[in-house]
């Protein structure tokens, strides 16, 4: 899981170089709507049916929670939170201000790796105060081969590649994620990029959330996820990175509130 911050001297030097570098350019993607967490990346996202006057939501990973990793099978809903998020400028060079959560709406590391925070302000107020509109959650499953960007608010860097395919099950230590997005090798995401939105470049919509990669070629261990197909065959792809799809979340939200009772909601439930 790529929230981990790099501990060796080499990694620290690399990180410093990234922080000082100009943000990567993409044809249509900017840092507008992205945020930096204390240990991860994230984004201000709007469900398709939400109003601009609804409370804003921030998307990140379940493993980015301040309280630690949720256990396998654990689902957290509607818990008070005062977590803060640094809202980035469109060019990623500065922070426009601090957003604050009102509650942790949903978080899990079962089947997916996601957290959703509800803020104490609306999309409209964020736009009026900072000039930043939210990113839109796509209600549609993405297709293999499409161009995508992983936009890291933590590192202020954009990683561009394509969706290489989808993984039946992705196993990492005790956790299992389903129908994960596998990136082509060009997206060399690192620690701190966890929680970054995966943006489909043709639409500008969020289709996933970045969460892990196989660092050293180990099999199914922490920071070394493995792919398991429907027949149980295990494949290890050293250096390849992954994300989790988010289209399913749109059926579990009623505007900016959680609606796990919706019969179309397939997300894990408490």
Automatic annotation (TrEMBL):
Gene3D superfamilies with a match to the protein in the record: Trypsin-like serine proteases
Pfam families referenced in this protein's UniProt entry, alphabetically: Trypsin_2
Entry keyword annotation includes Transcription regulation: no
Alphabetical keyword list: Signal
Signal peptide positions on this chain: 1-26
The protein, known as: Serine protease
């Amino acid at each position: 899981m790529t929230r981990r911050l790099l501990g060796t001297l080499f990694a620290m030097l690399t990180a410093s170089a990234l922080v000082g570098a100009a943000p990567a350019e993409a044809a249509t993607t900017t840092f507008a709507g992205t945020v930096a967490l204390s240990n991860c990346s994230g984004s201000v996202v709007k469900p398709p049916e939400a109003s601009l006057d609804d409370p804003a939501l921030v998307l990140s990973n379940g493993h980015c929670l301040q309280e630690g990793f949720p256990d396998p099978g654990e689902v957290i809903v509607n818990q008070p939170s005062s977590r803060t998020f640094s809202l980035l400028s469109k060019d990623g060079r500065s922070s426009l201000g601090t957003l604050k959560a009102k509650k942790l709406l949903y978080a899990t590391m079962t089947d997916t790796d996601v957290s959703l925070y509800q803020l104490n302000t609306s999309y409209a107020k964020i736009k009026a105060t900072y000039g930043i509109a939210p990113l839109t959650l796509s209600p549609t499953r993405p297709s293999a081969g499409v161009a995508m960007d992983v936009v890291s608010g933590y590192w202020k860097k954009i990683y561009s590649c394509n969706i290489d395919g989808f993984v039946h099950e992705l196993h990492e230590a005790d956790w299992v994620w389903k129908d994960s997005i596998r990136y082509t090798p060009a997206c060399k995401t690192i620690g701190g990029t966890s929680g970054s939105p995966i943006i489909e470049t043709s639409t500008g919509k969020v289709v996933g959330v970045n969460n892990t990669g196989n660092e050293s070629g180990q099999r199914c261990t922490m920071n070394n996820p493995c792919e398991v197909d429907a027949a149980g065959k295990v494949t290890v792809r050293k250096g390849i990175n992954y994300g989790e799809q988010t289209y399913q979340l749109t059926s579990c939200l009623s505007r900016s509130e959680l609606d796990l009772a919706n019969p179309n909601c397939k997300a894990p439930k408490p």
